[in-house]
Amino acid sequence: MLGARVVITLVLRVRAFRTECGDWSGAASARRLLMPARETEAIILKTFPLGEADRLVSFFGRSSGRMRGVAAGARRVKNRYGSTLEILSHVQIWYVEKETRDLVRIQQADLLESFHKAQSDYGLSTGLAVVSEISELILPEHEVSEPMFRLILLVVREVERTGDWSLPLSYFAFWTVRLGGWLPRFDRCVACDAALGVKSAFFGAQQPGLYCENCKRAGMKPMHAGARNLAERFTGERLDRIVDEEPMKASAKELREAALGWIEVHLERQLKTRGLLETT
Ligand SMILES: [Zn+2]
Q: pTM of the prediction?
């Protein structure tokens, strides 16, 4: 008898609560509670402090594309995310989509692969910052891109493995331009169509192509045949099989500078992190 009375009281209380809130919000919150967590392999692109304790996280999901989410409590000293939200970490991430906002709620992140050496070294982290900034600006939201996912992962692995960003970053910039479809011809002058052969080509800020000696403009920098050969190797060989020898450094730099310039032309803005490279 006593048990039955308790049940009745509870039912009345629940009814009163639902009337207060109205049926609409009751139904909406029930739907939200029922919404299942999604899961994807992801690369952390960037995080920003949010309020006192949280972090806003931009991540590139292998099966979700680029997304933004809130990691609640991630700024607290003791938090459940640990080092998983470091820049360019390779993680498995669980998140819940909300109906009313663009931000998802990040429930959990597990580290799949650690890039601790690259993330904690200032010199190496400048290379990672460039990869992060370009990816953040280039990748459209919610759009899956398997080639870009593999490219970023490969490049960060190589920075970690070799302890040097020079060749990996050249490879990243070159392939980003190539995948984006903005790669100019490497064998002919963009202005007069003359064959470049083994002669130097020239590139400049705000200019999307390679120029010959006759057409080059003031302030343009040379890209020697070696750098164009390296681009050829980048298209045909795996990055981890290309041995970074000393003479290649100059070629890698020329190719990287040109490709970063073409990325800036496409984005119609200057990369903030690019200047950091000169300081390391
Ligand atoms: Zn020309």
A: 0.85
